[in-house]
Automatic annotation (TrEMBL):
It comes from the Bacteria. Residues 2-74 form the ACT domain. InterPro entries: ACT-like_dom_sf (IPR045865), ACT_dom (IPR002912), Homeodomain-like_sf (IPR009057), HTH_TyrR (IPR030828), PAS-like_dom_sf (IPR035965). Pfam families: HTH_50 (PF18024). This is TyrR family helix-turn-helix protein. It comes from Anaerospora hongkongensis. GO terms for molecular function: DNA binding. Keywords: Activator.
């Protein structure tokens, strides 16, 4: 049974309600307090005692009305939130400080190529970095409309983040909004002005030397655009370890140009 009791909140009100339930031998399942009302879900000792229970609750000081309801506020709010998330065209998810997804919609899973069955595990460090989650947690700032490339899906999308804080101002997680884009400034290797290709072949220069110079320019241009080795690796289809090795080989660092 679920009840809504309109009331004037005061110290000891929940204790008085609990005493009535004990006297009626009812089992409390959950209690939710909102402004001006207390919601109670409980199991009755016998079904026929509901009228008597309501009469006893109305005798409690500062309780004004008692009526039966079908759902608790938390469940109703959860259903409303689920409806809103499902209706959104953009992807939306929230993660805690451990990188575990707590809320999401199907659009976000599609953009990120994630499966709902695997969301009990933290997001990868690469994804935390690409989606600006790690920086949002570390720096405490929001990021807006940051265009990124999702290497796992071949999609470009804009990412916006906002830190979640508790009543003390401490960050407890991050909300991320994802919007698919056409990649207006997308990296396109085929149109890069590769001087290593356009320039003259030097005497004694081997094909390996020539290809190495092209690879260096591609790496340099990618790092210049994305300012992140993880992001550059995602664009070029390389693991983070692999691109770090190539950057070291060519004497480049993240942020080099």
């Amino acid at each position: 049974m679920r009840l809504c009791m309109t009331c004037t909140n005061r110290p000891g009100l929940l204790l008085d309600i609990s005493q009535v339930l004990v006297e009626q031998k009812c089992t409390i399942v959950t209690v939710e307090v909102v402004e001006g009302a207390v919601y109670l879900e409980c199991h009755l000792a016998v079904a026929e005692q509901m009228p008597e229970l309501i009469r006893e609750l109305l005798r409690v000081k500062d309780i004004h009305t008692v009526k039966e309801v079908t759902t608790m506020p938390s469940k109703e709010w959860a259903e409303q939130l689920e409806a809103v998330l499902s209706a959104l065209q953009d992807g939306l998810l929230s993660v805690n400080l451990s990188g575990i997804v707590e809320k999401y919609n199907k659009t976000a899973l599609t953009i990120l190529n994630l499966k709902a069955d695997n969301l009990d595990q933290p997001l990868s460090a690469a994804l935390m970095d690409i989606l600006f989650i790690s920086r949002t947690i570390k720096e405490g700032y929001s990021f807006r409309n940051q265009e990124v490339f999702m290497g796992t899906t071949g999609r470009y999308c804009t990412v916006s983040t906002r830190p979640l804080r508790n009543n003390n101002g401490k960050i407890t997680g991050v909300v991320i909004v994802l919007c698919e884009s056409q990649g207006a400034w997308a990296f396109k290797p085929q149109i890069l002005p590769l001087k290593a290709i356009e320039g003259p072949v030097m005497a004694g220069q081997t094909l390996e030397d020539r290809l190495g110079a092209v690879e260096r320019e591609i790496l340099q241009a990618t790092i210049y655009k994305f300012r992140s080795s993880r992001q550059a690796g995602a664009v070029l289809g390389l693991s983070h370890t692999a691109i770090l090795k190539k950057l070291k080989k060519h004497g480049l660092q993240s942020g080099s140009y």
